[in-house]
């Protein structure tokens, strides 16, 4: 998918929070059955609550996420 801002190719992956308290929202290009094992890049500060996994695309240049839910 091309970025709507800069037209560069976007990276496919997932935005998620591991199923544990005080974990941050992260981005990873890998999918793991146990998301706590994925080392993805932190993209939001830690939150208290359940697990969230959303597929989408990220432009590393523009810092733009395109998510489908």
- What is the distance, rounded to the nearest whole angstrom, between the alpha carbons of the first and last residues? 17 Å
* Chain-averaged pLDDT: 76
As a percent range, the share of helical residues equals under 10%
Low-confidence stretches: none
> How much of the sequence is in beta strands?
over 45%
Number of domains: 1
Shape: elongated
Structural class: mainly beta
Strands, count? 5
The Rg value, from CA coordinates, equals: 12 Å
Largest sheet composition? 5 strands, antiparallel
The helix/strand order is EEEEE
- Number of helical regions: 0
Main sheet: which strands, in order across?
Answer: 3-2-1-4-5
Provide a quick synopsis of the model.
The protein has 69 residues and is mainly β. It is 0% helix and 46% strand. It has one domain (11-67).
Explain what the structure shows.
- The chain has strands spanning 11-17, 23-28, 41-47, 52-59, 64-67.
- It is mainly beta and 69 residues long.
- The protein has one domain.
- Strands 3-2-1-4-5 form a five-stranded antiparallel beta sheet, with no helix packed on it.
- Strand 1 and strand 2 form a beta hairpin.
- 12% of the residues are buried.
């Amino acid at each position: 998918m091309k970025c709507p801002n800069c037209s560069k190719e976007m990276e496919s992956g997932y935005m998620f929070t591991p199923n544990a308290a005080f974990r941050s929202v992260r981005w990873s290009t890998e999918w793991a059955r146990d998301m706590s094992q994925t080392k993805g890049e932190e993209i939001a500060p830690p939150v208290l609550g359940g697990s969230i996994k959303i597929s989408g695309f990220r432009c590393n240049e523009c810092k733009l996420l395109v998510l489908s839910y």
